[in-house]
Amino acid sequence: MRAAAAASFRLAPAANPSHGRASPTTSCSLKPAPTARPSRLFTLARRAPVARASLGISHDKGSEVSGADVVGQNDLLIVGPGVLGRIVAEKWQKEHPGCKVYGQTASTNHHSELTDLGIIPSLKGATISQKVPYVIFCAPPSGSDDYPGDVRLAASNWSGEGSFLFTSSTALYDCSDNMMCNEDCPSVPIGRSPRTDVLLKVENVVLEAGGCVLRLAGLYKIDRGAHVFWLRKGTLDTRPDHIINQIHYEDAASLAIAIMKKRPRSQIFLGCDNKPLSRQEIMDAVNRSGKFDTKFEGFTGTDGPLGKRMENSKTRAEIGWEPQYPSFTEFLGLSC
């Protein structure tokens, strides 16, 4: 699903008011929201020369990454600065002017982009010359030969001050049949599946190190998420009443930052918008929104597993956080 969602996604020109349908097999397009913000790359690039002037950048595994002078009290390491990690970087830099933000990646493919965003890039496996007070691990397990080892290495770059946060998945909650589920629901047992096993093992590594875990529901924004995958397919042989839980990328980033600023230790938090929707409700909202040229045709399945209804009031109360986008439908500009 991730690969499909990452395929070409053409933004409709602002001057094009067309709501015409497109073939499900062709590239779908979006109508940009009238309040769209300037490009994040443009916004952050203006700060890049200041960052570049004082950064030590490493492109070698096992090497040392040196920043300027001493470590600042708000310096941050992001392991896996992809879509979510870059939003975290932007928000963190705005809240902590002058801080250094490091970004570790699996390859050098996007290092120039990270530098332009004011992020000090290095390859996975590099160590920072001095431990940093804040670390967030956003990299997925795919492509890693030793995911727990990667997390241990990230933890070794944490000074023990500030916060260490690992972004995990709500798939670890042992709940189904579209039932309610919150932070107190039990986790799936080891042995349920290889995917959940690796996440459970890594969560234990994080908690034992004094770090915290943020189990996130399905991430989305206008051109990424389950709705984009389904829209490209046109029709799917899956049941329409399966419940999906979501959280906008911006809200996931703001929640992650709010947790890190609280500096809790060895806790598991839950990130969702508290407005679970069925697959059918999600795609009905997409079709009604007028923001996409392509129309979704439907789900044709009648069996298969159901989902769960995630609710994170406990996390919100403890952290003092509320989402910018209370629901997927409201994000699309729909009242219900």
From TrEMBL:
Ranges of biased composition (kind: Low complexity): 1-15
Top-level taxonomic group: Eukaryota
List the residue ranges of the region (Disordered). 1-35
Family, as annotated: Belongs to the NAD(P)-dependent epimerase/dehydratase family.
| InterPro entries for the chain | NAD(P)-bd_dom_sf (IPR036291)
Alphabetized, the UniProt keywords read:
Isomerase, NAD
Q: What is this protein called?
A: NAD(P)-binding Rossmann-fold superfamily protein
Gene3D superfamilies xref list: NAD(P)-binding Rossmann-like Domain
The organism that produces this protein has a lineage beginning with: Eukaryota, Viridiplantae, Streptophyta, Embryophyta, Tracheophyta
Q: Which organism is it from?
A: Urochloa decumbens
> Is Plastid given among the entry's keywords?
no
Its Gene Ontology molecular function terms? Answer: isomerase activity
